[in-house]
Amino acid sequence: MEILSFMIIFACIFVPSLKISLAIDSINLLESMRDGETLVSKGGNFELGFFSPGSSQKRYLGIWYKNIPIQTVVWVANGANPINDSSGILTLNNTGNLVLRQKSTLVWYTNNSHKQAQNPVVALLDSGNLVIKNEKETDPEAYLWQSFDYPSDKLLPGMKLGWDLRTDLDRRYTAWKSPDDPSPGDVYRALVLHNYPEVYMMKGTQKLFRYGPWNGLYFSGLPDLSNNTLFNLHYVSNKDEIYYTYTLLNDSVITITITNQTGHIHRYVWDENGKTWRPFRSYPKDVCDPYNRCGPNGNCVTTQTQACQCLKGFSPKSPQAWFSSSDWTGGCVRNKGLSCNGTDKDKFVKFKSLKVPDTTNTLVDESIGLEECRVKCLNNCSCMAFTNSDINGEGSGCVMWFHDLFDMRQFESVGQDLYIRMAASESDSQEPVSRHKNNTPKIVASSIAAICGVLFLSTYFICRIRRNRSPRNSAANLLPEDNSKNDLDDLEVQLFDLLTIATATNDFSTENKIGEGGFGPVYKGILMDGREIAVKTLSKSTWQGVAEFINEVNLIAKLQHRNLVKFLGCCIQRQERMLIYEYMPNGSLDSLIFDDKRSKLLEWPQRFNIICGIARGLMYIHQDSRLRIIHRDLKPSNILLDENLSPKISDFGVARTFGGDESEGMTRRVVGTYGYMAPEYAVDGSFSVKSDVFSFGILALEIVSGTRNKGLYQTDKSHNLVGHVRA
Ligand SMILES: *[C@@H]1O[C@H](CO)[C@@H](O)[C@H](O)[C@H]1NC(C)=O
Ligand SMILES: *[C@@H]1O[C@H](CO)[C@@H](O)[C@H](O)[C@H]1NC(C)=O
Ligand SMILES: *[C@@H]1O[C@H](CO)[C@@H](O)[C@H](O)[C@H]1NC(C)=O
Ligand SMILES: *[C@@H]1O[C@H](CO)[C@@H](O)[C@H](O)[C@H]1NC(C)=O
Ligand SMILES: *[C@@H]1O[C@H](CO)[C@@H](O)[C@H](O)[C@H]1NC(C)=O
Ligand SMILES: *[C@@H]1O[C@H](CO)[C@@H](O)[C@H](O)[C@H]1NC(C)=O
Ligand SMILES: *[C@@H]1O[C@H](CO)[C@@H](O)[C@H](O)[C@H]1NC(C)=O
Ligand SMILES: *[C@@H]1O[C@H](CO)[C@@H](O)[C@H](O)[C@H]1NC(C)=O
Fold this sequence. Notes:
EC number: 2.7.11.1
Enzyme class: transferase
Structural class: alpha+beta
Number of strands: 46
Family: In the N-terminal section; belongs to the leguminous lectin family.
Strand order of the largest sheet: 25-24-32-28-33-30-31-29
Bound molecules: 2-acetamido-2-deoxy-beta-D-glucopyranose
Largest sheet: 8 strands, mixed
Keywords: ATP-binding, Cell membrane, Disulfide bond, EGF-like domain, Glycoprotein, Kinase, Lectin, Membrane, Nucleotide-binding, Receptor, Serine/threonine-protein kinase, Signal, Transferase, Transmembrane, Transmembrane helix
CATH superfamily of the largest domain: Transferase(Phosphotransferase) domain 1
Membrane topology: Single-pass type I membrane protein
Number of helices: 15
């Protein structure tokens, strides 16, 4: 009687606000409920009572759908400990625990030792949740006990899969042993708390199937789970709880998921007209879903006849097994071992649209972004891959994988980017990483010039140039308008993000500075994809510098030759203007030929090769390229050397273009470097391909002699190298 009055009071006071109902109208659950009696939720959705599953004779306490004619049990209390007759009796004792007995034998009971019971009541809610709570309690968080915390094999809307960290409660879903036997089998679905948690389907200790971690939008391995007409997925992660749950889009739809004995998850929707459960979706659903199909570092691709592929840069560990017997368990190994030696020996290659690897060996840092993540990963030899931990919006957070990468798969359109560590020498055609995820901003040089023009050239500046110079040498050269339109059509220049460059160069740190260009320092950097770059900065607000910057972008973007330094793109943001080139590990020619130690190692054939290379490059800009270009500042510090000591002409800041038939120009502003300038240019300002050839001659002499033209002071009247050679 006591309990009944408590329940009535409870119902009157709290039901309206909680929107829950107590089945006080169906039976007299006072001190006990016997086999044959049931408790029905207020709205009539669910019923609690004793049942026998399938052909079994045993009795179990459970909850099922009241209105569904096919007996569908959603929760079982004593699955592991059935009652062999109809003598079961359920009581709520005054410490707030449910106790199930067969005669005097204890069959099952609830544990709520950690919460204080005061006039406890028991209620079956319309969500299917059986709860014990204190009479005056209104907060679902303070329930003494609830069946949703001890799930069986079925996930109902509002149930949680995952952890209550405060009580160490792991809500996992365990398959029945068989349709006749609800005792928990060894197949279960659980959220595993790695640093980057994810849901697994397990059979004992063996992983059957993996959802992939929650990436802010969906489970990495099940993008389509979030994308349906039935429910919304919610992933909750805070200091108290980590779990996922789902809510229905239409509350009158009845749906469940069942974990079956072979580790399949089936979702059904009740079809009221057909009076049947209609299958909605099930997982795993294709050949790539079963766990670790392709071994370590393998990638599963459903569209290939051989589902297992090695990622670019990897090859099958046992090619024989891999190709001839489709035995993929050995997985893939790197083509080139990692050097893992300092930060500049490895790089990262971006792979798109993946299910990210198993997160067992991961570290997560939500406070840093992708760029810092790359640096962090690069600095730890066992860090093999990284990406954003949350892909919402621009992406945020950092997750790093250590050791081998397991259970990846390829998606076609959705899926995540993953940056995988590779040896620096591993060739790759992957596009450079840019902060702009979807479409790397590539714009034709004409629009770059337009941007540059808009950003940096005030009308005043343009006017001044037009007034001061002859048209041929002036704005037409700076802003490609008419004369070179045809050449620009197919041209693409990549625009780099300032942040990308800042991260690549360690925020332009002094350690990364490799030289002083004509208009600002030059830095070495490493892009996200591992490419080494040289960043030529332009000092802020130098008018002259701006013009030359634009000039160089315009010219070099159109030039491609193995003896010209390779231009990668530019960066124009805020006050910053930079040119990005491939990095030349052997520095500039002057640091080689004029250096006592290094020049000793330079053999004659190498010197000859360098001279020939420069000549080829010069030939190209003078004759063979689409534009005729006079470099005007050829000197050893503008010749860079790659790892094979192959020379590359750089620094087109003061170069001039001509139409195909023109070959000479005049300028009032003589630029270049004394010592390398042809006399007629230095004196009259008239320049042509011949002035470059003059400079080339000096250069050749310097390479052969290892002496600076200006630096050779003899006591006799020949004051420089040229005079010396003449003499
Ligand atoms: C049912 O179980 C009880 C206790 O476990 C046992 O004493 C009894 O003999 C069993 N009855 C039958 C019919 O198996
Ligand atoms: C209530 O049930 C729990 C669980 O079986 C038990 O530990 C506790 O002693 C019971 N309390 C009373 C007063 O029977
Ligand atoms: C009660 O708690 C103990 C230990 O915490 C646990 O082993 C047992 O399974 C629990 N019983 C139920 C019915 O939840
Ligand atoms: C969601 O479904 C729509 C329609 O089927 C599809 O176009 C879209 O790509 C899907 N998105 C994801 C993330 O699966
Ligand atoms: C919700 O589902 C019911 C039953 O399927 C249907 O009759 C009703 O139109 C649906 N409501 C909405 C808003 O879709
Ligand atoms: C579990 O579901 C899968 C997929 O529908 C089915 O092939 C398998 O037979 C089921 N397992 C059992 C034991 O019913
Ligand atoms: C690391 O670099 C040093 C010097 O650059 C070299 O001697 C050593 O062999 C390298 N180690 C590995 C594992 O590549
Ligand atoms: C690299 O990371 C792993 C995993 O966090 C850690 O155990 C190891 O100490 C790190 N190594 C270095 C050199 O920082």
